[in-house]
Amino acid sequence: xxxxxxxxxxxxxxxxxxxxxxxxxxxxxxxxxxxxxxxxxxxxxxxxxxxxxxxxxxxxxxxxxxxxxxxxxxxxxxxxxxxxxxxxxxxxxxxxxxxxxxxxxxxxxxxxxxxxxxxxxxxxxxxxxxxxxxxxxxxxxxxxxxxxxxxxxxxxxxxxxxxxxxxxxxxxxxxxxxxxxxxxxxxxxxxxxxxxxxxxxxxxxxxxxxxxxxxxxxxxxxxxxxxxxxxxxxxxxxxxxxxxxxxxxxxxxxxxxxxxxxxxxxxxxxxxxxxxxxxxxxxxxxxxxxxxxxxxxxxxxxxxxxxxxxxxxxxxxxxxxxxxxxxxxxxxxxxxxxxxxxxxxxxxxxxxxxxxxxxxxxxxxxxxxxxxxxxxxxxxxxxxxxxxxxxxxxxxxxxxxxxxxxxxxxxxxxxx
Amino acid sequence: xxxxxxxxxxxxxxxxxxxxxxxxxxxxxxxxxxxxxxxxxxxxxxxxxxxxxxxxxxxxxxxxxxxxxxxxxxxxxxxxxxxxxxxxxxxxxxxxxxxxxxxxxxxxxxxxxxxxxxxxxxxxxxxxxxxxxxxxxxxxxxxxxxxxxxxxxxxxxxxxxxxxxxxxxxxxxxxxxxxxxxxxxxxxxxxxxxxxxxxxxxxxxxxxxxxxxxxxxxxxxxxxxxxxxxxxxxxxxxxxxxxxxxxxxxxxxxxxxxxxxxxxxxxxxxxxxxxxxxxxxxxxxxxxxxxxxxxxxxxxxxxxxxxxxxxxxxxxxxxxxxxxxxxxxxxxxxxxxxxxxxxxxxxxxxxxxxxxxxxxxxxxxxxxxxxxxxxxxxxxxxxxxxxxxxxxxxxxxxxxxxxxxxxxxxxxxxxxxxxxxxxxxxxxx
Lengths: 416, 429
Known about the structure:
The structure holds two protein chains of two kinds. Chain A is an alpha+beta fold.
C-alpha cells in the first residue's frame, strides 16, 4: 500500500506527494502528456529531440544541469510514444532548487540556437549508436512499421529516420513547447523525505503563477483491426537469425492487458517458463526466446522474439512456437502455474518498492493514465485474473489474421 | 513577477553522511557474516563472496561458466526443479562472476526464507554440472560472443582490457571464439571443488532477517564440517600493460568507439581519494569536462564517461565513448586536451564546489537503502576495507584544494603511458 496525497492547482497542475522518511533524498518527477504519437508522420522523433532541448536553458536559468549539480542533484528524462517524463533527485533539504528549475522550464525555454544545433548532433549520434551501429538495431523500426498502418505507434520515439531530425527547425521547437508544455498538461510528484504542506507551498510559489495554456488536442487515428496475416523477410549483416511475431491486444488498465502481461510470464518469465523448458532445453530449437507486451497506453502489442539455434529449420522452430500458443488456446493452464506467476508478480512489486524515485514515477504515470489510485488497486486486479480469462485471451489474440511475422536473417548464414 | 526566478533558492550543502551500522560476527568455520538491517520491506538478501573470480581460474571461461552452471542442477534437484521452486516463491538466485570474487546473491521474501534455504545449500554444496545444460550454455554463450563481436563498443573494450592487464593476465578478456573449444565440464567441477569453499568467506545479509533466520543462515554458511580448500589460488598477478594506440577496423561503421586509459593504483592506495575527485571532474558526471566539451559543446557523441577502475591486481582511469566516425579525430584530440588541462591549470573554486556537491550526494546515495548499502559494503570487503575508507573519502572530497587536484593529475596522468583503442572506420592516411 503506497500512501500519497493529491492536490490540483488553479492552473490545472496536479500535485502528488508521497512521503518516505527512510531516505535522506527527495525526488521530483514532472510528467508531460506528450510523446512520439503526437508527432506528424513527416516530423518524427521530435518529442524526443525536444526532451534534449529542455536541458538547454530556460527563460531565467541558463544552465539547468549546473544549477542542479551545485546542490548535489541528479537528473534524467525519457520519452515514450505516449509521454515525456523528467525526474531529479536531490538531498531533501535542497528540494526547492528542483522546484525552481522545473517551474522555470515549464514557464518558458530560452530557445537557444547553440543548444539546438548541438543537441541535434547529439540526437543524431544517439540514433547511430542505438539503432544503426548495432546488430539488430533496427528491429523496432521494422516491428512497428509492420504492425501499425494508421496509428502513430508505427514509428519509435527516436524517429523514423535521421533526416527528420536534421530537418527540424527552431520554429518547430517553439510551436511544440507552447502546444504541449503546460501546467494543465502535466503531473508533478514529489517523493522521499518531504512533507505534504511544504511541497504544496512550494508548488504554489513556483508553479502557481504559470498560466494555463491551450493545449493541442490529441488527434491521431486509431488502428483498424488487422484482417490478414503479414509476413516479411529481411537480410542483414548480423551473425545470427532472429524470428519475431507480434499480435494486437487491448489498451493498458484492461483485463485483456493484464492477461497479456501474465501470458507473457507463463511463456517466458524465468527458467521454469514454458518457452525455456520446451524450446530451449528440451527441443533445443532456440538459443533464447522471449515473450512480452509493449506496455503502451493505447492498444499495443504482444510480442515474441527468438533466436533460433544453429542448423535448425526455421519453419520447424516456428511450428514449435505456435504449438505452445495452441496449448494456451486449447487447455487451461494449471492453477499452480498461475499461482506461480502471481506470486512472482507480487514479490517483484515488493522488491521494487524500496525506491522512492520509482514510486514517484509510477504515481505520475497512474495519475496521467486517469487514476492515481490504480497504484494500489492494480495488485487485486491482477490477483483476480483466472485461468479461464487467460485461455480466452489466447483464443482471441493468437489468430493468424492478427499476426505479424518477421524473419530477420543473417547474410553470413545464407552464404555459408 | 519573474524577478524571484532569477535567483537560486538557498543551498544547503551536505556536510554529514550517516554511514550504516553493521553487525559483524565470525562463524564456526571462520566465515564472517555482516548484517545490515535496513529497509522496511519484508525481504532478505544474502550476498556470499566466494573467492571464485577470474583471478582464481586457470583458464578462460572457467569462472564464468561455473557460476552460471551452479543453478543448472544439483544432486537433489534438477535444473527445472530449482527453477520451479525459485519462481514459485518469487525468489532469485544468481551467481555473478567478477574479477576477484564471484558473488552468489539470493533474494527472497522473509516469509519464504525457511523453505528456500535447502535449495541454496544444495546449489553451494552439490551441483552436478549436467552435460546437456553445459553444452546448451556453451552454444548460447558463443552466439552472444559473435553478436557482441559486431559491436564497436565491445571490440574496443576487449582489446583495451587485454592491453591494460596484459594478454595473458587471468582478468584479460579473450577475442577468439576458439577459446570455447578448450573448456570442459571437468574444468567446472574442479573449479567448484576448489573455490566454492569457506576460505576467508564473507557473507552480507541485508533487509529484514529475524533472529531465527540469522541462526539458520549462520548454520548454513558457518558449518564447521564444511572445510576450507588448501589448493585455492588467491594471489594477484600484477598488470603488464601494453602502451600505445591500436586501431580495430570495422568497415561501414557509422560510429567509432574510443577506449582510452592510464594504469593507476587501486583503492588501497592513499592517493585513491584524490584520484577519485580528479576522475569525477574529468568525466564522472554529466557536468564533467569531457561531457560538457565533447557532448554538450561539440555534439560529437551521445555520451562520454571517465571512470576509476579498481581491482585487487591494480587500477586504471578509463575513458569510453562512441563518437561519429567522421569526428573521431577531433574527439580524440579534445580528450587529450582535457587531460592536459587538468595538469596545466588550477581548477576554479566554482567547479570544485560543483564536483564536491555532486560527490557528497553520490556517496550519500551509495549508502541509501538496503541494496545500495550491501553493494557498497561488498566493494569495501573486497579490499579488506571498512567504513573508515568512506570517512576518508568524505574528508578528501570536503577538503581537497585546486593545487592538490592539479598535483595529483600531474603525478598520475602520464600521457606517454596511455592505452588507446579505436574501433570502427580507420581513416585513410
